[in-house]
Amino acid sequence: MSNIIVFVEHHNGTARAASAQCIGAALATSHDVIAVVSGKGAEEAAATLGKHGATKAVALTGAAQHSPDALARDIAKLVKDNGAKGFMAAATATGKDIAPRVAALLDSTLFSDVTGITAQGDAFTVVRPWLAGKAIATLTSQAPVFCATTRLNVFAASGAEKKCEVIKAAASTDGKAIVTSVAEKAEEKLDVKEAPVVVSGGRGLKGPENFKLIEDLAAAFGAAATGASRAVVDAGWRPHAEQVGQTGKTVSPQLYIAVGISGAIQHLAGMRTSKVIVAINKDAEAPIFKVADYGIVGDAFEVVPALTAAVKAAKKH
Amino acid sequence: MKIVACIKRVPTTEAQAKIAGDGKSLDNAGWQYMASFYDEIAVEQAILTKEKLGGEVTVVTLGPSAASKEVREFLARGADTGVILKDDHPSMRDPRATAKALAAKVKALGAEVVFVGRVATDRDHSAVGAMLATYLGWACVTEAIGLELSAGKGVAKRETEHGVETVEFSLPAVITCNKGLNEPRRASLKGIMAVKSKTIAEEAFENVAAQVTVSKVELPPARKAGRIVGEGAAAVPALIEALRGEARIL
Ligand SMILES: Cc1cc2nc3c(=O)[nH]c(=O)nc-3n(C[C@H](O)[C@H](O)[C@H](O)COP(=O)(O)OP(=O)(O)OC[C@H]3O[C@@H](n4cnc5c(N)ncnc54)[C@H](O)[C@@H]3O)c2cc1C
Ligand SMILES: Nc1ncnc2c1ncn2[C@@H]1O[C@H](COP(=O)(O)O)[C@@H](O)[C@H]1O
């Protein structure tokens, strides 16, 4: 069977969920997966990848610091050496940084942030959003190597464990750009793109101090992230990293809760592919209710604390 | 230092999608256009760089003649010259073809630093900047939220899902600009007057064949009709019930 190289991100030796999903997407095209991991803990991570369905895992070791251009060269070389038909990565900040470089080195175009992939033999077809999801395109690849990044929370990780050969290779150290330090954020804080539950607040919250309500509701769910509309990001109430929408992040969580958000077209573009949408807004005519599965018409200051208490109680049993 | 900012003319974010008769493209009737949101940040960074280190800013776009409207706005803000690589269908070009056309122009201009947007908000590739850098053999920092340039090198900050990275790089380089990097200025009256003495050149470019065929374009499936479960805090139990029973979330 021909194979696809998948760049796998990990945290101290544990593969990130987004990368496991990317391997799942590659396997679903009936190709074998050769995983590539780099950085501190690469060997530990490589040793776990059979569990996610890889048949070979290459640990790039020996580089003290991450360089995106050096890593891209190493990956492109692995694609060539293994005669791989495809290269894939998760559409994370790191995946989106590496993938276009690998694609260019292979003189292949890149299909970014795809939400569907099928293959007939080595002929690949993808589904990807245009205009931030206002339209959905089905595209076929004529690239010499099929290169794609996969949207988070869309593809399922594989449950089928494979016997996986682990190989060590020397990472290039001649990068033109080098990541010299990383200020890691508190580990419990999930990003809106990866969290299964996103609770977002808008201008209806009246001021930055009231986002405690949003944080508390997110905390009640456990694995949840807080998001925001552009209006509150522009007002400086919340960081840009939390902005959901056409000029922010596109999210597809299991559950999206919009509190005090009107539902402007640019906001909807970023969250309409969420599995379940809940809206809390005091205006029954707010456009957000048109995409919501469940709505509560009411004052956020009254509804959200009650919901937080009820979610906590529901989680107990 | 020669500085380039790449901009793309895209439909405004209010534009609604309507599928064209061929089922493979979008009907653009009634659309308004703008420079992609992040390109404003790219041009601003180019002008800030000129103000700090000296040099000249060229705005380059692969797009239709009508893009002169967006280019002119950036000339009014402080860019020096504009180049339109004339292409009536820039949205149909794949990121590889766009990056190759831009790389050829950047090389011809002898630029040392190129600023592009994090993503163009029509096709949302988020790919052209890093592909351009790779074709040029240059350093690249994507999604920069902070930048310090000095002679021959630079330091940038970029945010990932897990924290903020500090990236040191050598020039020449391509920087893809994220929100937070700067606050784009408005054109001053003096700037608007100065546009008259600036030039926008229209040029041909070498068009490489696309590696993508569009099979179809559709509207996203409509979400199934939702319902209002109630009003005020009294509706919370009904919501919990729905999340548990129908949605199987809690
Ligand atoms: C180029 C461009 C790009 C954009 N990109 C984005 C983007 O990426 N993301 C994005 O979100 N927006 C984006 N926008 C902005 C967008 O058009 C809206 O302005 C923005 O989404 C509005 O934010 P909001 O819903 O928080 O505020 P508003 O529209 O002011 O809505 C506030 C809502 O809160 C409700 N409310 C008020 N008080 C209460 C209360 N006590 N309890 C409950 N509800 C209450 C109101 O009924 C109202 O519906 C963009 C705009 C442009 C022009
Ligand atoms: N047709 C184009 N002309 C000029 N610059 C472009 C073009 N397409 C993309 N770019 C630049 O590359 C950035 C990222 O675009 P993309 O990879 O298409 O999301 C844009 O913000 C522009 O700065």
Give structural attributes.
heterodimer; A: 317 residues; alpha/beta; Rossmann fold; 2 domains; 5-stranded parallel beta sheet; 28% helix; B: 250 residues; 9-stranded mixed beta sheet; binds flavin-adenine dinucleotide; binds adenosine monophosphate
Structure description:
The complex is a heterodimer of chains A (317) and B (250). Chain A has helices spanning 17-27, 42-47, 68-81, 93-105, 211-221, 230-234, 265-271, 288-291, 300-316, and strands spanning 3-7, 10-11, 14-15, 32-38, 56-61, 86-90, 110-114, 116-120, 123-130, 135-141, 146-150, 165-170, 177-184, 197-201, 224-228, 255-259, 276-281, 294-297. Chain A has a 7-stranded parallel beta sheet, sandwiched between helices. By secondary structure, chain A is an alpha/beta fold. In chain A, helix 3 (68-81) packs across helix 4 and helix 5 packs parallel to helix 9. Chain A is elongated and about 60 Å long. Chain A has 2 domains: 3-170, HUPs (Rossmann fold), CATH 3.40.50.620; 197-315, Rossmann fold (3-Layer(aba) Sandwich). In chain A, a hairpin with a 2-residue loop joins strand 2 and strand 3. In chain B, the strands form 2 sheets. Chain B has a 9-stranded mixed beta sheet, sandwiched between helices. In chain B, helix 3 packs across helix 4 (128-136). Chain B is an alpha/beta fold and 250 residues long. In chain B, 26% of the residues lie in helices and 32% in strands. Chain B has 2 domains: 2-203, HUPs (Rossmann fold); 225-250, no CATH class. Chain B is globular. Chain B contains 6 helices and 13 strands. At the A-B interface, helix 3, helix 4, strand 7, strand 9 and strand 10 of A face helix 3, helix 4, strand 7, strand 8 and strand 9 of B.
